[in-house]
Specification:
3 helices, seven-stranded mixed barrel, alpha+beta, M1 Pyruvate Kinase, Domain 3, three-stranded antiparallel sheet
C-alpha cells in the first residue's frame, strides 16, 4: 500500500505552533528531530529532567485544556537555538530555551497572555532535548495522519477539517481512508527510513480546537465515535532503520 509524504511538521514546544519542514532525518530511538523537546508545566508536573519519563499531557499547557494556546505563534530556529513567540495584544518574545533565564522569561510571557482561569499553578518550561520527547504516548515516536481519512471525516461532519488539528509529524496522500487503522505491527518504508507501525492514535479534545482561530468549535472526538465506532485518526510508527524523509517521498506499508 503506497502513498507519498504530503507534509512534514515538528512541534518544538508541546501544544504550540506546528512548523513545516522540507525533509527530516529519522533514526531508531531518537525521537522526531526537534519535536516536542520542550513543554510548559501548568503547575508542578512531577517531571524530572535528570530522569525523564512519560508525563500525562494534562500536566502541561496544551490545546486539550487551553484552546488559547493556539493563538500564540511560536517559531524555533535550530541553527541559533532562538525561539520567538507572538500573540495578539502581547509584545513578541525572543529567547533561547536552552538558557534558564529565557525559559523563565517565556513562562512569564505566557502567564501574562493566558487567561487567569487557565493557569493552575506556576508555569515552567521543562526540557527534554535528547532521546526523550513529550509525546502523548511514551512509545509514540513519529505520528502519521492519512489525509484521505481526514477528508472522509470532514465529509461525514459536513465541514472542512484543517489537518493540523491532528498535530501529526507526517501527512500522507495516496492511502485509502482509514486503511491505516488495521496496520499495527506492519513494516513501512518512509522515504529512505524503515519503520514499524505501533498503534492507531486515540484522539482527544485538542482536535476540537481550530488551529487558526484558537476557538473550540467542533466535537471531533464525538464525530469519530458516532461515525466509525472508534476515536482513532492517525498512527504511531517506530523507526527501525535510519534514513531521510522528504516531501513527495513514498511511504509504503507492507502486506499483512
Amino acid at each position: 500500500m503506497s502513498g507519498h509524504v504530503a507534509a512534514i511538521y515538528r512541534h518544538p514546544v508541546k501544544g504550540f505552533t506546528p512548523e513545516p519542514l522540507a525533509h527530516v532525518d529519522l533514526a531508531p530511538g531518537e525521537g522526531f528531530p526537534h519535536d516536542r523537546i520542550w513543554a510548559v508545566e501548568n503547575g508542578p508536573s512531577g517531571y524530572d529532567p535528570d530522569a525523564p519519563a512519560f508525563t500525562p499531557k494534562q500536566k502541561f499547557t496544551v490545546l486539550a485544556a487551553i484552546p488559547k494556546v493556539a493563538a500564540a505563534r511560536t517559531r524555533y530556529d535550530e541553527a541559533t537555538g532562538v525561539m520567538t513567540a507572538e500573540a495578539p495584544g502581547a509584545a513578541a518574545f525572543t529567547g533561547r530555551l536552552d538558557e534558564a533565564a529565557s525559559r523563565d522569561a517565556f513562562a512569564a510571557w505566557l502567564t501574562a497572555f493566558l487567561d487567569v482561569g487557565d493557569v493552575r499553578g506556576p508555569l515552567k518550561v521543562v526540557d527534554a532535548r535528547g532521546a526523550f520527547r513529550f509525546t502523548d504516548h511514551p512509545l509514540g515516536q513519529v505520528s502519521v495522519v492519512n489525509m484521505a481519512s481526514v477528508r472522509d471525516l470532514s465529509q461525514k461532519m459536513g465541514v472542512e477539517l484543517d489537518p493540523l488539528r491532528f498535530r501529526a509529524n507526517l501527512y500522507v496522500e495516496g492511502w485509502p481512508a482509514w486503511a491505516e487503522n488495521e496496520w499495527s505491527d506492519r513494516e513501512v518504508m518512509v522515504g529512505w527510513a524503515r519503520a514499524k507501525v505501533f498503534k492507531p492514535i486515540v484522539r482527544c479534545a485538542a482536535t476540537e480546537v481550530d488551529p487558526t482561530t484558537a476557538i473550540r468549535d467542533l466535537e471531533v472526538v464525538k464525530a469519530l465515535f458516532d461515525n466509525y465506532g472508534h476515536m482513532f485518526c492517525g498512527i504511531y510508527i517506530q523507526v527501525t532503520s535510519a534514513g531521510r524523509v522528504g516531501l513527495g517521498d513514498a511511504i509504503t506499508a507492507g502486506a499483512a
